[in-house]
Amino acid sequence: MADQEPITPIPPPPAADPRKLALGERLFGDPRLSGDGKLACSSCHDLRTNGAGGGRTMTARDGSNAPFDTLTVFNAALSFRLNWEGNFRALAAQAESSLENPANMRTSVDEVVGKLNADPEMVRQFRAAYGRAPDRSSFLDALVTFEESLLTPGSRFDRWLGGDTSALSTEELDGYQLFKSLGCSSCHQGANVGGNLFERQGIFRPLVQAKPEIVRVPSLRNVATTAPYFHDGSTPTLDEAVRKMAAAQLDRTLSAAQIDAIVAFLRTLTGTYRGAPVAGAQP
Q: Domain residues of the chain, as ranges?
C-alpha cells in the first residue's frame, strides 16, 4: 500500500553512537550555548511537547519582533532545506547560524567550545565519545547526531500505510482522499509530508501579510500540535489554515464538511517521540 501513496512512512533514525547521542542531548538543553547563559536550544524547541515554540508570541530574545514562527525540530532532519526560507542545506550550518543570531543566542561556536573545555565533566564526555576534548567539529557533530534522532514515527497514518486498515476512520480516509484530489499532496508529500520543495505563498489570493513570498514548504508531520500556522504565526487554528490554503493556493472554497475531513486526516499525522504521542503546547 505504502509504495502507491504520495506520503511515505517516517524511517527509523540513523544508527548512532549512544555516547554521541547522550552528549548531543545534553548540549541541546545546555544554556551555555547562549551568550548570556539563559537560553538553550530546548528553550525554543520544547521536546516535551511539539518540538517548537509552544505557540508563544513571536518575540526574539532581545525584545524585537521575530519575523518567523518557530518551526518544530521534530523530523527536521528529513527536510531537504532548513528554516522557513530554506536557506540552509545542513543541520550543522543551521545550528551555527542559530548560535550567532544576535537576537537570540548571541554567541559563536568558538565561544561555546571554550566554555565546554572549561568544564571537566564535558571534556570527559567528549573524550569518551570522540577521543578528544571539545572542538568545533565534535561539538557540531554531537548536536547534529541528536537532532537526526528527533524523528516521530508511529502515527496512525503510518500504521495505515503499513497495512493496518483499522488505523483510520471513514472520515479520516475521506479527508486523505480530498487531500490528494484537491492537490494538497502536490506540495505536501514524501516522508515529511512536505519539506522538500519551495512554494510561492498566495497564488490566487493573499495568504499572509508578511514577507517572504517564497518559503520552503513546511512539513505537516505533527501539524495538529504545532499551532499557530504559517511563517508569520498569523493563523491560530488548523481549520482556518486549511480554509486559507485552499483559497490562496488552490483557488478552492471548501465546505465545512470538507475542512472537517481534511483536518481529521491531518490529525492522524501525529507521531510519537520516545513512546509518547507528540503533544500540543500547554496554553
A: 2-7+152-277, 18-148
For residue 13, pLDDT beyond 80: yes
- SS3 track for the chain: CHHHCCCCCCCCCCCCCHHHHHHHHHHHCCHHHCCCCCCCHHHHCCCCCCCCCCCCCCECCCCCECCCCCCCCCCHHHCCCECCCCCECCHHHHHHHHHHCCCCCCCCHHHHHHHHHCCHHHHHHHHHHHCCCCCHHHHHHHHHHHHHCCCCCCCHHHHHHCCCCCCCCHHHHHHHHHHHHCCHHHCCCCCCCCCCCEEECCCCCCCCCCCCCEEECCCCCCHHHCCCECCCCCECCHHHHHHHHHHHHHCCCCCHHHHHHHHHHHHCCCCEECCEECCCCCC
pLDDT single digits (tens) 197-224: 999 999 999 999 989 999 999 999 999 9
Q: Which homologous superfamily does the CATH classification assign to the domain defined by 2-7+152-277?
A: Cytochrome c-like domain (1.10.760.10)
Query: Rounded to two decimals, what is the model's pTM?
Result: 0.94
CATH architecture for the domain at 18-148: Orthogonal Bundle (1.10)
